[in-house]
Amino acid sequence: MTILDGKKVSSEIKLQVIKEIKVLKKKTGKVPGLSVVIVGENKASKVYVKSKDKMASELGIKSNVIEFDENISSVELIKKIKELNEDGEVNGVLVQLPLPKKFNTWEVLTNINPDKDVDCFLPTNLGMILLNRANIFPCTPAGILKIFDYYNINVSGMNACVIGRSFIVGKPIAAMLTNRNATVTICHSKTKNLADHLKRADLIVSAIGKPGFISEDMVKQGSVLIDVGINYIIKKDDVYEHCDELQIKKFERKGYAITGDIHKNAYKKSLYYTPVPGGVGPMTVTMLMYNTLQLFKKKQDLLK
Ligand code: NAD
Q: What is the C-alpha radius of gyration for the chain, rounded to an integer number of angstroms?
């Protein structure tokens, strides 16, 4: 079994992005711009936004975080998005989700100009994936394909089982694997006999959000296991359930551990697997930067 090291792949992509931005800056006098809009006080969202802002600055992307109080109206929020749509220095506009409950998320998101839809959440951009004509992809699925490319994993002809049908991970990765000629089954909370589907799968992509849910007996010997799930585990009866030593060591001082959907005992049956943390997770923010660069290049008419 080989560990698919998302940190390593992500570092390589970041270096490429830095290099390319330097060259483009010389050529055009401009750098890519990313605007992140956050509304309210969701602590986890604030942490994510901070890490996006930090990485953008490190890579040479001009980053701009716009924070709003929860009391802002939908009209004011949409007005700001429209301003960003018009701003020539902004290539990517991201609205951090979840928005506070009073907002209609789709009404807000669909006001982003599709050419600046850096998260690739809008119908036109998701539709292009179905048509196999896309040049931008949602960050987490895009990160998974970059991992495949880095490790030369060819999914063509594989039986792939995607668990989860969110528009952020499950549905787009299913379409993207189909475009790479995998035979894809999408499973979800209403799927009957999930284990039967999984046991036939050469490749499993799990995006559920249930710690250790996929057990050793559910996976085929020699399969590829991609774990998107991020689950925060708090100590119960003095143990962190489902977590191995490394997972515990990394975060214990913060009072929790992080683990994925796939039980650690299943790893030994795999040919390749992504650990949690350190697998798919590090790819997501990196691919946001990569997408910002792609949108910049598209605007400058520099896409190959
Ligand atoms: P979600 O949270 O919107 O939905 C969960 C999905 O799991 C649903 O489609 C549901 O049908 C399915 N599901 C729930 N119970 C199930 C069961 N018993 N059997 C089969 N399917 C079941 O999905 P999401 O937003 O894609 O997030 C899924 C997980 O991935 C979460 O843990 C989230 O934190 C994580 N995530 C990680 C990254 C990353 O960068 N690594 C990015 C996005 C999401």
A: 20
Give the residue from 12, 13, 55 showing the smallest Cα distance to 34: 55
Q: Does residue 180 form part of some domain?
A: yes
Q: Mark whether 179 and 88 lie in a shared domain.
A: no
The amino acid at residue 256 is Y
Residues of the chain with pLDDT under 70: 302-304
Quote the pLDDT of residue 303.
Answer: 66
Residue ranges making up the domain that contains 209: 137-282
CATH of the domain at 200: 3.40.50.720
Atom of ligand 1 nearest to the CA of 208: 7
Q: Which of 51, 55, 169 to mutate to test the pocket of ligand 1 (most atoms within 8 A of CB)?
A: 169
Give me the catalytic one of 14, 52, 146, 297. 52
Rounded to 5°, angle at Cα 223 from 220 and 228: 110
pLDDT tens-place string over residues 223-259: 999 999 999 988 888 888 888 887 888 888 888 889 9
Q: Which residues line ligand 1 (CB under 6 A)?
A: 140, 163-166, 168-170, 187-189, 191, 194, 207-209, 228-231, 280-281, 284
214 lies in the same domain as 161: yes
Atom 35, ligand 1: which residue's CA is nearest?
229
Total domains, the chain: 2
Beta bridge partners, 99, equal none
Q: Do 47 and 146 lie in a common domain?
A: no
